[in-house]
């Protein structure tokens, strides 16, 4: 039995072991779940294994793919990066990492991993991909490395070595570039790209391997070269700055032969590039007849480059300018402009228009100047300055054009914007210095040239500094510099002399510099300009007598500048009479332009020769000519006339102008001032009255003369002027108010006549009513009644009823007023007018008419406080107590501070046997009454009555007693007092008050 049990146990143990082997372990279980697409469970298992430290490919790779399947790209990258860090030689892992980097758009990481992968696999395709990716990332060193590995692996690819060579050349390795280009050329049997050929030629020449370059080019040509190949290779050698090699290359095909025109032109082009211009001109001149259109533009370009501008210009006649390159046309146009030939630029503008000129704004500007269009010239110059295609010299030229076109402000602004640096060439420094001076920037220019001399000294910089220092710097320093320069241009010396002369008056060193520079300029070139400069310097240095002989020969044709110098010399030498005679004689000769006459007159005025200048000045003032407005010349003439004691002539001139047309403001002021200075008050009054009543002038220009008349004491004239002004503007105008102020509160009969005449002449009822209102206001009520009343009836026109009613009220005609109101009130809709009618009726004692007006007002304005009060009071007076209560209640409901209304409302209620209802109104009346300041006897009596109504009889008695003491003879007061006492049963006191026995 024991043995059998052991056997059974053994069998059981073997079975259990076998069954354990059949249970899948974690890796198999994860793989099984992966295959069953149970990604979540599979990833959980792999994550457990990874967390437990399993970094093998059987764990990392599935876990990476599971992360990707679930969209967790960053986790997949991190897993793969960690695996690659542990297994850097794993090709499969790096390929996976490449794809992951691409999906994650991490080009930098992709590039580094691709480099490692290419080195692992040593694959030509991978190196090519690496070169492309490195180039895209601008990693040129890596691209060179990748191509260097790629090219030996793919020797059949002749494009890659050319690309590599270009990179090496750009990175400063010409020898390496040449090596790869030679390999590519040999492998391609001379069929490399034209750019590569040109690069190879250039590099070989740079490496002093010219002969090798030449032989390589000749080999490319072969035994029977085509014209196109010869032209192409020769042009490549020329582009490599070796036109001499290009000439050697094609000379065998040109010398002693009759080559095709294209090859001949290429040969000539090479001759020009090799600076063999005379040979080039000879061959150009020998070309037979006119060329075809296709070669015409190139031929002209060669002629221009060879300096044959005149033949080129001649060749354009009769040919289509569209065939010629723009730069050639620009050169020809500029040459023509320099020679004073406007025909070719005009033809350019006419045939090619603005489209051609767009690329040559300076040329366009110069053409516009030549055609007399400064606005267009300025526009072209500004367009050129706005772009970035102009050289520093062209920018200066554009600014100069702006200045010449009269756009000084724009030229200055453009000049200030220039980024002036040391890059400006010496040949432009003279123009730069001139612009600094002409644009009033001399101090800034001096600082710039001082810095330029320190950094880059040169004769041009020194001359520019001297020109500016003479204008704004130290004259002594310029004089010292001048002494050390034995040879200087005459123009520079003249400019220095001119600038120093401008400062000579206040600076002795500047005067000395002007003299030294002008003496040297005159010694070199005794031209009129040098002679004038020396004469000015002599005058400035106190030697005007020596200047006069120099100036005398220039007077005939010297112009204003010479005249000024001669006059300055005469004045400096104390020859004033000679000066006046000289200028007067010059005027007497005639045949002078307006500008010349003006210059002479200005000189005469400057030297106080006023009488000599007066005839011309008066003529210009009368004709309003002379190149300036007549008003300007009139001012100059007036000033000269005053200084020459010729004011009567000035007054006569102004009087004649005033009689022809109203004077302008400046002339008007001048005429008044002149008459005042001459003491001609009567003439001044007549002039002011004429101006104030001149309908050709606007009203505001006529108002001031009226005030001036009043200031002169001419009240009648002012009144006449104001009547003229007010007549056309109505009684509401400021002019009528001024007129009324002159008349005072009671105008004279003539004034009332005038107002009445305006009313009768009015063009509309409204205007007529306005004038009649003023007539009534100023005491002419009876005139208004007579003018509007007719047969004693109110006027029919609604607008005229108001002034008629006002006049009746002013005249105290109550009956007529009431009759007029009966017809006017029903037609009147304006509340203010109805209120006025009611007041007027009350003033004249017409209670019924007043009630009618108040009732009409209340109809149109149911809450009108005035109407409610007045109608309520009228109702109380007429013992219409119910109406009084109704109206006064509505009135006091608005809360007025009106004790009378509250009192009479209480009285009405008391009379209606409702004393209790009256009490609140009595109390309000008493309170309001006591708060009033300065109460009279009537108010005190009212207070006594209120106290009586409120049961405070003793207080009422006290007030009545005080009143009786002040007014012992007032019977009505005694009666009211006694009545109050009797009402309260105090008969003995009543008898005492009434003085009864």
Structure description:
This protein has 997 residues and is mainly alpha-helical. It contains 59 helices and no strands. It is flat.
Alpha-carbon distance between the two ends: 175 Å
What low-confidence regions span 5 or more consecutive residues with pLDDT below 50? 1-26, 625-630
List how many beta strands DSSP finds. 0
Structural class: mainly alpha
Percent in helix: over 70%
Characteristics of this structure?
997 residues, 59 helices, disordered N terminus, 0% strand, flat
In a few lines, what is going on in this structure?
By secondary structure, the protein is an all-alpha fold.
Detail the topology: elements first, then pairings.
Layout: H1 2-22, H2 26-35, H3 39-51, H4 57-69, H5 73-86, H6 91-103, H7 107-121, H8 124-136, H9 140-153, H10 159-170, H11 174-187, H12 194-206, H13 210-221, H14 227-239, H15 243-254, H16 261-273, H17 277-286, H18 293-305, H19 309-315, H20 326-338, H21 343-357, H22 361-370, H23 374-386, H24 392-404, H25 408-417, H26 429-438, H27 442-455, H28 459-472, H29 475-483, H30 490-502, H31 508-524, H32 528-540, H33 544-551, H34 559-572, H35 576-589, H36 594-606, H37 610-623, H38 630-643, H39 647-660, H40 665-678, H41 681-692, H42 699-711, H43 715-727, H44 734-743, H45 749-761, H46 765-777, H47 781-789, H48 798-810, H49 814-824, H50 831-843, H51 847-860, H52 865-877, H53 881-892, H54 899-911, H55 915-930, H56 937-949, H57 953-966, H58 971-983, H59 987-994
Helix pairs in contact: 2-3, 3-4, 4-5, 5-6, 6-7, 7-8, 8-9, 9-10, 10-11, 11-12, 12-13, 12-14, 14-15, 14-16, 15-16, 16-17, 16-18, 18-19, 18-20, 19-20, 20-21, 20-22, 21-22, 22-23, 22-24, 23-24, 24-25, 26-27, 26-28, 27-28, 28-29, 28-30, 29-31, 30-31, 30-32, 31-32, 32-33, 32-34, 33-34, 34-36, ...
């Amino acid at each position: 039995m024991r043995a059998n049990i052991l056997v059974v146990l053994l069998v059981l143990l073997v079975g259990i072991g076998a069954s354990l082997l059949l249970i899948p372990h974690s890796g198999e279980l994860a793989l099984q779940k992966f295959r069953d697409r149970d990604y979540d469970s599979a990833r959980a298992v792999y994550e457990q294994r990874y967390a437990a430290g399993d970094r093998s490919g059987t764990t990392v790779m599935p876990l990476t793919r599971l992360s990707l399947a679930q969209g967790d790209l960053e986790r997949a990258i991190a897993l793969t990066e960690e695996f690659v860090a542990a297994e850097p030689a794993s090709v499969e892992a790096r390929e996976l990492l490449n794809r992951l980097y691409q999906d994650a758009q991490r080009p930098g990481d992709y590039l580094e991993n691709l480099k490692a992968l290419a080195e692992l696999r040593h694959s030509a395709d991978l190196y090519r991909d690496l070169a492309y990716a490195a180039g895209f990332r601008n990693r040129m060193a890596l691209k060179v490395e990748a191509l260097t590995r790629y090219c030996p692996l793919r020797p059949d690819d002749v494009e890659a070595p050319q690309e590599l060579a270009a990179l090496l050349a750009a990175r400063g390795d010409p020898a390496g570039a040449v090596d790869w280009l030679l390999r590519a050329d040999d492998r391609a049997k001379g069929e490399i790209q034209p750019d590569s050929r040109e690069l190879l030629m250039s590099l070989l020449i740079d490496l002093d391997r010219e002969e090798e370059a030449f032989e390589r080019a000749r080999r490319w040509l072969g035994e029977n070269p085509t014209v196109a190949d010869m032209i192409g290779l020769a042009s490549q050698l020329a582009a490599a700055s070796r036109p001499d090699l290009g000439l050697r290359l094609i000379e065998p095909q040109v010398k002693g032969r009759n080559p095709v025109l294209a090859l001949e032109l290429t040969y000539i082009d090479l001759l020009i590039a090799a600076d063999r211009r005379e040979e080039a001109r000879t061959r150009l001149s020998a070309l037979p007849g006119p060329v075809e259109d296709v070669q015409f533009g190139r031929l002209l370009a060669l002629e221009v480059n060879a300096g044959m501008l005149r033949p080129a210009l001649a060749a354009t006649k009769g040919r289509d300018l569209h065939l010629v390159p723009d730069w050639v046309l620009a050169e020809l146009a500029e040459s023509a402009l320099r020679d004073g030939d406007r025909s070719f630029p005009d033809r350019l503008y006419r045939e090619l228009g603005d489209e051609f000129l767009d690329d040559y704004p300076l040329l366009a500007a110069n053409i516009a100047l030549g055609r007399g269009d400064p606005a267009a010239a300025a526009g072209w110059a500004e367009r050129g300055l706005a772009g970035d295609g102009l050289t520093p010299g062209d920018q200066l030229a554009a600014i100069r054009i702006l200045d010449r076109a009269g756009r000084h402000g724009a030229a200055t602004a453009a000049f200030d914007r220039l980024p002036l640096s040391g890059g400006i060439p010496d040949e432009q420094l003279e123009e730069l210095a001139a612009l600094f001076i002409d644009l009033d920037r001399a101090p800034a220019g001096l600082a710039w040239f001082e810095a330029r001399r320190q950094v880059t000294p040169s004769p041009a910089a020194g001359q520019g500094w001297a020109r500016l220092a003479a204008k704004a710097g130290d004259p002594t320093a310029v004089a010292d510099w001048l002494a050390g320069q034995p040879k200087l241009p005459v123009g520079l010396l003249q400019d220095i002399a001119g600038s120093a002369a401008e400062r000579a008056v206040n600076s002795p060193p500047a005067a000395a510099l002007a003299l030294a520079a002008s003496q040297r300029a005159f010694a070199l070139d005794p031209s009129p300009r040098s002679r004038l400069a020396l004469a000015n310097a002599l005058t400035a240095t106190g030697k005007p007598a020596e200047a006069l002989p120099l100036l005398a020969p220039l007077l005939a044709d010297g112009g204003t500048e010479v005249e000024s110098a001669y006059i300055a010399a005469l004045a400096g030498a104390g020859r004033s009479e000679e000066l006046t005679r000289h200028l007067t004689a010059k005027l007497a000769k005639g045949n002078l332009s307006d500008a010349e006459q003006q210059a002479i007159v200005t000189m005469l005025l400057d030297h106080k020769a006023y009488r000599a200048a007066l005839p011309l000045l008066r003529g210009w003032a009368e004709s309003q000519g002379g190149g300036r407005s007549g008003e300007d010349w009139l001012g100059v003439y007036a000033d000269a006339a005053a200084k020459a004691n010729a004011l009567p002539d000035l007054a006569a001139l102004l009087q004649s102008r005033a009689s022809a047309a109203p004077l302008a403001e400046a002339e008007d002021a001048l005429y008044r001032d002149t008459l005042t200075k001459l003491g001609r008050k009567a003439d001044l009054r007549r002039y002011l009255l004429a101006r104030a009543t001149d309908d050709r002038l606007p009203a505001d220009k006529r108002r001031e003369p009226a005030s001036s008349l009043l200031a002169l004491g001419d009240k009648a004239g002012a009144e006449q002027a104001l009547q003229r002004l007010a007549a056309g503007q109505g009684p509401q105008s400021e002019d009528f108010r001024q007129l009324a102020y002159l008349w005072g509160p009671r105008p004279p009969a003539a004034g009332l006549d005038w107002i009445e005449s305006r009313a009768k002449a009015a063009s509309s009822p409204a205007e007529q009513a306005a004038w009649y209102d003023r007539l009534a206001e100023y005491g002419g009520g009876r005139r208004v009644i007579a003018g509007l009343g007719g047969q004693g009836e109110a006027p029919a026109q609604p607008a005229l009823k108001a002034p008629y009613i006002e006049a009746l009220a002013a005249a105290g005609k109550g009956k007529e007023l009431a009759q007029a109101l009966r017809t006017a009130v029903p037609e009147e809709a304006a509340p203010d007018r109805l209120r006025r009618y009611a007041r007027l009726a009350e003033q004249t004692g017409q209670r019924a008419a007043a009630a009618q007006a108040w009732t009409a007002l209340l109809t149109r304005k149911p809450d009108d406080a005035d109407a409610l009060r007045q109608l309520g009071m009228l109702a109380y007076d007429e013992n219409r107590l119910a109406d009084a209560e109704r109206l006064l209640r509505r009135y006091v409901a608005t809360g007025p501070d009106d004790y009378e209304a509250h009192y009479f409302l209480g009285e009405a209620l008391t009379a209606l046997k409702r004393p209790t209802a009256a009490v609140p109104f009595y109390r309000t009346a008493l309170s309001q009454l006591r708060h009033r300041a300065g109460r009279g006897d009537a108010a005190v009596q009212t207070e006594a009555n209120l106290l009586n109504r409120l049961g405070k009889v003793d207080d009422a008695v006290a007030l009545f007693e005080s009143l009786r003491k002040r007014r012992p003879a007032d019977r009505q007061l005694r009666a009211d007092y006694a009545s109050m006492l009797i009402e309260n049963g105090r008969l003995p006191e009543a008898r005492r008050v009434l003085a009864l026995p």
